[in-house]
Design brief:
By secondary structure, the chain is of the alpha+beta class. Helices cover 36% and strands 34% of the residues. The strands form two sheets. Strands 2, 4, 5, 9, 10 and 11 form a six-stranded mixed beta sheet that branches. A five-stranded antiparallel beta sheet has the order 1-3-8-7-6, with no helix packed on it.
Length: 204
């Protein structure tokens, strides 16, 4: 009896494997990044540990939660929070607290704690792209602000261009009048000697 039990304890783990797979790429916002980890096992786990690691080969653990499948919902605390649910070999997880600079490969780690044997496996990794909301203005907003600045400048200037145009026109008219007077003075000055010569001839 003892021999059979020892044999089962030795050979049962060799026939059982735990596989974890993940999608290649997901997108999300800092407060809502969905990630799904699929696991398959010949056992029906009752107690599990689900963890999330950053980097393809790194050991930086982002979050970790113990889950009793009688209450499959889990949630973690910390700078980065993970919450989700486990059902039918699927870990549906929502990650919040990531930033745009945290775009990287993330791997799921699934551990079967009970019933024995203890099994552990990492996923193949998912590229998680975080669409961060930027506070920088877009090109369209910049062009609109420039247009509004120009319009405000023109409004501040007021009728100054009109006054300049009136001044230029008035100056041109004044110069033309002066030139007319000069030409008239020249004409009258040249005609006066001729009239005096005619008068002198008449006197003869």
């Amino acid at each position: 009896m003892i021999i059979i039990l020892i044999t089962n304890l030795i050979y049962i783990p060799l026939g059982i494997a735990l596989h974890v797979s993940q999608p290649y790429r997901v997108e999300g916002k800092p407060e809502n990044v969905p990630l799904q980890c699929l696991f398959s096992s010949e056992l029906r786990p009752e107690e599990m540990q689900v963890s999330l690691y950053r980097g393809l080969h790194g050991q930086q653990r982002i979050c970790s939660a113990y889950v009793n499948l009688s209450k499959p919902y889990f949630a973690t605390d910390g700078p980065v929070q993970c919450r989700g649910n486990i059902s039918s070999g699927i870990v549906d997880m929502i990650i919040s607290g990531l930033k745009g600079e945290d775009t990287d490969v993330y791997r799921c780690k699934v551990e079967v704690l009970y019933p024995p044997p203890y099994l552990r496996s990492f996923g193949n990794g998912t590229v998680v792209y975080i669409q961060e909301n930027l506070n920088c203005p877009t090109a369209f907003m910049q062009s609109q602000s420039r247009i509004s600045e120009r319009s405000s400048v023109s409004d501040d200037v007021g009728p100054l261009p009109l006054l300049c145009a009136i001044l230029i026109i008035t100056s041109c008219i004044f110069m033309l009048q002066i030139m007319k007077i000069i030409w008239k003075w020249r004409d009258t000055g040249s005609m006066a000697p001729m009239a005096t010569q005619k008068d002198s001839y008449r006197k003869f």
